[in-house]
Amino acid sequence: MSGKPRLTYFNGRGRMEPVRWLLAAAGVEFEEVFLETREQYEKLIKDGVLLFQQVPLVEIDGMKMVQTRAILSYIAGKYNLYGKDLKERALIDMYVEGITDLMQMILVFPFSPPEEKEKNLDSIKERATNRYFPVFEKVLKQHGQDFLVGNKFSWADVQLIEAILAVEEKIPSVLSGFPQLQAFKIKMSNMPTIKKFLQPGSPRKPPPDERYVETVLKVFKK
């Protein structure tokens, strides 16, 4: 083992992408193993590596971690991206959970039938502009600071920039009514570790395509 975290998942975004984002934002290099066959997945289960028979799987610090939320919490804590006390951690948790709810809609979007794509896109836009983005616009405006919690870069900021860029890919004008989030996006995108992650050739994955969807369905036999 090289000592680098080892990520096992599909060669696509899915539930592993926030993990890639968080590690990259912390300046941590990692290795990836891509699931491409049902046999690979079944071997992991047979070997007892997947606690709940689910991926993502992250091998870090001698642990074989599953469950995205647990993985992200551990990484955030390890690299000092999880606030300075319980109150800050609670705020980060609240913001992260909200962003995760929005990202869940984007996560399942590639798997929706063609005839439902437009309706689902409208739902993403409606939720982003009326429920989720107004919250973060207000938070940033009220405390007048660069970051969401404690004026210090945290896991919540990483999740938010990931979500902003993911929604913008589908709805380019989505930030038109959110000047604070526009400024936040520019600032975050220019942070050295994030800027590096946004460059071509980084471990950041492109938007899911048909091949990604086919691979996921084949491995899970859905």
Automatic annotation (TrEMBL):
Example GO BP: glutathione metabolic process
InterPro entries (alphabetical): Glutathione-S-Trfase_C-like, Glutathione-S-Trfase_C_sf, Glutathione_S-Trfase, Glutathione_S-Trfase_N, GST_alpha, GST_C, GST_superfamily, Thioredoxin-like_sf
Enzyme Commission no: 2.5.1.18
Limits of the GST C-terminal domain: 85-209
A Pfam family the protein falls into: GST_N
GST N-terminal domain segment(s): 3-83
GO molecular function: glutathione transferase activity
Highest taxon, organism lineage: Eukaryota
Keywords: Transferase
Record family assignment: Belongs to the GST superfamily. Alpha family.
PANTHER family: GLUTATHIONE S-TRANSFERASE, GLUTATHIONE TRANSFERASE
Name by which UniProt lists this protein: glutathione transferase
Gene: Gsta3_0
